[in-house]
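User: Okay, second chain of the day. Same drill as before: sequence in, C-alpha cells out.
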Amino acid sequence: MSDNESKNDGSGGPGGGSDVNRRDFLKLAGLASAAAGGAGLGAFGYAAGKDPNTYLGWQNQEGASLVFNRKRYEVDEPTYQEVGPTSRPDARVEQIFERRGRFMREYMRLRGGPGPITAESFPEPLRSYYLAKPQDLDLDILNTEELQPLNRADAMEYSDPLILSQAWSAAMGAVGPGPINGPPEVNDFPRGRGGTRPEPMKMKDPAKTAELIKVISMQLGSTLTGITELNPDWVYGYPIRGRGFEDLEQPLEIPDWWTYAIVVGTPMSWDPMYANPNYGTSNDAYSRSRIIAARVAAFVKALGYPARTHTPGTSYDLIVPPISIDAGLGEQGRNGIMITPEVGCNFRPAVITTNLPMASDKPIDIGVDDFCLHCKVCAEECPSGAIPMGDKVEVRGYRRWAIDTAKCQNFWTSTLGNMGCRLCVSVCPYTRKANWLHKTAMKVSANDPTGLSEKLLTSMQKSFYPGPDPQDYYMPSLGGANASYREPPWWLKTEDFIDLG
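Assistant: Same drill. C-alpha cells below.
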C-alpha cells in the first residue's frame, strides 16, 4: 500500500494542505451534486414551462388536467382564523374604488374653498373614515393632486411602445354581461312567459347538482369551479353603485336566496402576465370570467332558480377571495390574493349567488400559510410597499395579512402600463404553468412537515427568477425606468410592428 493510499485518517494528502477525509469528501460531493441537480432542474423546468402544453387555463374546458388531489387536504374549517367579533365591510369607504369615487366628488366641491381640506371637511362616512385613518386621506389627495397629473404627462411622452398592449387590453375588456336594472328581487329571478316566475325544477340530489354545475361551468370556460354556502360576513354592509339598489346609504339586507356561492374563473394570459406591470392586463381573464358567470347564471335561471352575478371589472355585492377560499379553491397568500394549487395567484374569480340546492366543497390546507410566512418575495418586490413584511393583523374579526390598498392603487397611477400592477401575481413562487416541476414542487411543499422545502423553493425563486429593482417599475417622472418583471411576448412589442417615427 502506498503512502497516498494510506492517508484516510483525516490528516490530509501528502503536503497536508487539506483536512478533507473520505466521509467529508462524500458529503461535499453530495452537496455539489445537489446544487448541480438543482441548477439542472431549474433550467429544465424553465424549458418545460415554455411548452404551450403547460399553459393550464381557460382552453381546457373539461378541467381534465386539474390533477391536484384536494380530497386529502380537506379540513373542517378554513385556514384563516376568527379571533374576535366579526363585522361586514363597509364598501363606501373600505372598497378603494368606491371610496375614491366619493372622495373625488367631494374634493371637486371643496377645492378652492377657504382653508385646507381636512377630514372634517367631508360628509359621512368619509369623515369618520379619514379621522380614523388620516394616512389614507393623505394618499387619496396625493393620488389626485400629484400622481394623476404626472401620469397624464408621462403618458404623452413615453407610452408609445405600449400601444399594442393597451389595444389588446381594450379589446379583451370589450365584453360583459348586461347591466343590473333593478333590485335583487327583480334582477335575480328568472322570468317566464308574461313576466311570471317559473317554478324551480325539483333537483334529485345536491351532490349530483354540484357535479352538474361544475361540468357545465367548465364547458362554459371556467378553469376552476368551487361551491360554498355563503358566509354573510363576506357581503358588503352597504350597497354600491350600479347594483340596482336605490338608497346607497341604507344597509344592504342580504336576500334569503343568496344561500350558495358558485365560484368560477380563469387565469390571465401567461406570457403578458409575467411582463407586468406594463404589458399584462386583468381584462383578458376579467372578460372571460364575466362571460362565464353570466352563462352559469343563465343556466341556473333556466332551472327556475334565482341567480346573481358578482363579476370582476363590473361590480360586486360581496368580497370574493374569502368566498373562493370557503369554496375550496385555495388559501389566502401574503399578497391578499387567493393562491390555488393549479395556477397559484393567476386566477380571476367571479361569483354567482343562488339558492339552487347544491353540496358544498370543503376548504383546503396545502401549506400556503406557512410558506408565505417565510417567503416574502411579493412583499420584497412590491414597489409601493403595500404588502406587509410582518405578521397578520385582525381585520373585522379575522386574522389575515392586510394590504394597504391606497398605496397599492397609487402605484397603479405611477406606471404607464395597463391599469393595475399585478406584480405580486407575477413574482409569487406558486404562479407557475402546469409543468412537471411545478406539480412536483407543489406536492413536496404541501406534504413537508419540516418547512425545509419552503425555504429551498423560495431560494430557487430568487435565484432563477430575479426581478428589477422595485424603484425601476415606476414611470420616469417618479425616478423609475418603466420596467417590467419579464420581457413581453413578441406580439406585444409595439416597435416591431408600428413605426413610431
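Residues 22-49 form the longest helix (28 residues).

User: Thanks, on to the next one.
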